[in-house]
């Protein structure tokens, strides 16, 4: 087996993020969480719920959770990422994007969510816990917006799919106190303004996502924005570049995000 060159970039960990949406008084609102200040990656940052994929997220049994009227048309290739995004959202902020296994679709109540989180904390598998509670993940309610990759210059890297989904009604965020210590609903413009005023810390991919969604009027507009993009989304890898005006991080033209160049001093990567 060939050895990895010592100066080769670290391989990125597959990850997934779920951006829950709702229509507020001032328009589109997103659910964000504040990461614990003691974490290794993005301590104290405002992010969307999400995390690394686990082996169980790839279980072929999840394919049975994908609703389709055409048996020949199977679930999308990003199914494990969708499972991971829903699982992480439940673990971090206590909201479960799911529907009943039988009967009309509806979100689980607070007691069911609490029981599921307790089961996961005790080591029970996500699929087993969901089945026991009578729910299936609402995998088809999600739309992939983007795929962000951590720059190759960092020792700790992620390859993350960002999903959008309308928030399930009747559920309120309750942070786990471990990774997430606070949660709030806010418009993209408000979050960007608070970051500009120094009251909030945003990693680069979060900031760029907020800039893109700031132009969306409501949930329907945001979901349409994701649906209009290429599926699956192409990877976006920020690259450090020296320019006459100073060092910047550059992203590919045509990726759907702007600006394409951001001064390096304004970029927080972790």
Mean pLDDT over the residues: 89
| Alpha-carbon distance between the two ends | 32 Å
β-strand percent reads: 25-35%
The CATH superfamily is identified as: Nucleoside Triphosphate Pyrophosphohydrolase
CATH class: Alpha Beta
Backbone CA Rg: 19 Å
Provide the structure class: alpha+beta
The low-confidence runs, each spanning 5 or more residues with pLDDT under 50, are none
Overview of the molecule:
With 270 residues, this protein is an alpha+beta fold. It contains six helices and 13 strands. It has a single domain, classed as Nucleoside Triphosphate Pyrophosphohydrolase (Alpha-Beta Complex). The strands form three sheets. Strands 1, 2, 3, 4, 7, 8, 9 and 10 form an eight-stranded mixed sheet that branches. The chain has a three-stranded antiparallel sheet with strand order 11-12-13, with no helix packed on it. It has a two-stranded antiparallel ribbon with strand order 5-6. Strand 11 and strand 12 (246-250) form a beta hairpin. The longest helix has 15 residues, at 79-93. The mean pLDDT is 89.
């Amino acid at each position: 087996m060939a050895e990895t060159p010592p100066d080769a970039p670290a391989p990125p960990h597959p990850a997934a993020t779920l951006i829950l949406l709702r229509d507020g008084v001032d328009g589109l609102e997103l659910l964000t969480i504040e990461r614990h200040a003691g974490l290794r990656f993005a301590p104290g940052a405002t992010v969307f719920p999400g995390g690394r994929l686990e082996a169980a997220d790839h279980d072929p049994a999840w394919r049975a959770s994908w609703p389709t009227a055409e048996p020949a048309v199977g679930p999308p290739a990003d199914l494990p990422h969708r499972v991971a995004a829903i699982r992480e959202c439940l673990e971090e902020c206590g909201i479960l994007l799911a529907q009943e296994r039988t009967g009309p679709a509806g979100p689980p109540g607070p007691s069911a969510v609490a029981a599921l989180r307790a089961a996961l904390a005790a080591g029970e598998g996500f699929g087993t816990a969901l089945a026991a509670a009578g729910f299936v993940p609402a995998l088809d309610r999600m739309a992939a917006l983007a795929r962000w990759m951590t720059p190759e210059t960092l020792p700790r890297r992620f390859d993350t799919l960002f999903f959008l989904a309308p928030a399930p009604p009747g559920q309120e965020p309750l942070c786990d106190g471990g990774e997430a210590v606070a949660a709030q609903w806010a418009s993209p413009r408000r979050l960007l303004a608070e970051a500009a005023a120094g009251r909030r810390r945003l990693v680069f991919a979060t900031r760029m996502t907020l800039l893109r969604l700031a132009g969306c009027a409501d949930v329907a507009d945001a979901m349409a924005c994701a649906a209009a993009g290429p599926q699956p989304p192409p990877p976006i890898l920020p690259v450090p570049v020296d320019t006459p005006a100073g060092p910047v991080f550059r992203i590919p033209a045509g990726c759907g995000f702007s600006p394409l160049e951001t001064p390096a001093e304004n970029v927080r990567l972790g």
